[in-house]
Amino acid sequence: MTVKWKYFIFLLTLITATIWLAVLFYPDSRLRLIACDVGQGDAILAISGKTQILIDGGPNSRVIKCLDRYIPFWDRKIEVVMLTHPQLDHYKGLIDVVKRYSVVNFITSGLDSSSQEFQVLKSQVGGRGIGVVNARSGTKVRVGMIYLDILWPSSAFSASESKPNDVKEGNTASVEETNDLGVFTSKRDPNDFSVVAIMSFKGFDALLTGDISPDQENQIITAGLAKDVNYIKVPHHGSKNGLTKQMLDATSPEVAVISSGKNNSYGHPHAEVLQMLREKDIRILRTDEVGDVVVESDGDKFWIKK
Amino acid sequence: MLAIRFVYFYKTQRSYPNGTKVRITDRISSEPIRYEKSQYLKLHGLKIYLPLYPEITYGDRVVIEGLVEKDKLKEAKLVSVSENENYLYLFRENIINFYHESLPQPHSALVAGTVVGSKSDIQQEFWESLKKSGTAHVVVASGMNVSLVAGFLISILAGIVNRKKALIFSLIGVWVYAIFAGFDAPIIRAAIMGSIAFSAQELGRLGSSFRALLISAAAMLLINPGWISDLGFILSFAATLSLILFESKVRRYVRFMPSLIKEGFSTSFAAQILIAPILFFTFGQFNILSPFINALVLWTIPYITIIGMIGGVAGLIVPPVGKLILYLTYPLTSWFTAVIQLF
């Protein structure tokens, strides 16, 4: 056999091996909801088939490790990135995400931040022509088989509490229509603007809460937007300035996921919140204890993957 | 003459007393390492830690201020950074970005490391397992990668044209690779040494190749005596020397091996003889199984390098085609990462 033939056969073997690897890692159409272990911060990845939604990016590049582990190697497209609010432990990892992956759409509240890192993220998102949707309660998004119902912020709340960036004379376009990341500022705590959403996959519902505070939770409940869910991402890494008993009553989740760093300086999750969950017999899963928390659902039942 | 140059170099080497406020203006000539919260770089012998953003890349011109404390620059502040406009740097940057856009970690980092010697995006964990298994040298642009690529080229070409022409084409290939990898000092060094080792191996004149290696090493040290403590330089030199001295002997012992991995094995094993102790001293870790692990994984390096190179160039012109080509490295990098993580 000549050398030429040998390399030709090697090339064929390589192509076959690549195709086999691609097929073996082809994801099924079930929903996998993964709370990535990114330390003190949030990064939650939803995968169903070739569709991915990433909610927040954590404080560092560990989110990349999580994405690369669960997304097949040939899929470099993330359909939606939802940024709940512009605080470092929620967006810093997104800078690497938009560089490494091709992100189609950004969903956020529109709240701006003057920090240097956020300006880097803004210019990356703008420079790549990524679509930005400034969501308000009532916004519905469908990506593949996954639905997102936005519960917060409400239009009334953001209109009364914010100040649009560079208001020029005669510029009356509302913030929903711009295509920039971060279009208004506010004197309030950024947590109050956290995007809250219910993610649905057929019969499975997950409440994603960002760092929302008790006052805003009450407003969501008063507006009649809270409903029964299977899964709750405990707000604010399990801080007592987060989850309320009223929210648990209104949503009655079976599983509560807490994304916090080991021995973090804030003492998250707080004992009060853990106590509240235990009293209701809700199963608690913590990224600081088990690493990535993977919940899988076929749309009917759901289970926790080890 | 070399001795005089050394004395002159160390006499004129600037040193600053502790607490001096300095302002450094220079071009980044080694790739900054990115950690979770900071980026690390070394300039004028000073260790500098800066915030992650703005990001500094290889080849940038920077102005940095800070206070000297032993070998560190405290309270370092980035005054300004401007990108290198040189098209070879931009080319290299774009290729590295293309790898990271096309493949997941750590596969993309392994491809970027072997093809263009980029270390900045290697994640901590993966770097640890590279060091532990004694394979960290694959991501240091060294004469060894160059020899592996040349060895691969010649074995393909030998089947098509005669041996002498094959050698010439392989050397051309090596220099194309050097340009491709940024054509910076470490790469040029590696290419020179790789070419020497390789020609020696092929022409079989041990004495003259040994002399050629010493002369070229001395010439490089005349240009910059600081290179004597540069890991890339030491690895290039040691690997080349090792290949000249031991390759033909090792090859005699492995005649029984299948030809696909024989060349890779004899090359990597021969290079290991002098490289292993150096890796032990620099990385502080020595794995007794290292030659064995290297033999298991090194055969993938020329394929990864060449497929990565073709895929990278194609990707800059027609991205989808480049991506398809790069996917072919995935089984190889999977094998590589799986093997080194076993140990």
From TrEMBL, chain A:
Keywords: Membrane, Transmembrane, Transmembrane helix. Gene3D superfamilies: Ribonuclease Z/Hydroxyacylglutathione hydrolase-like. This is Metallo-beta-lactamase domain-containing protein. It comes from Candidatus Woesebacteria bacterium RIFCSPHIGHO2_01_FULL_38_26b. Residues 37-261 form the Metallo-beta-lactamase domain. The chain crosses the membrane at residues 7-26. Pfam families: Lactamase_B.
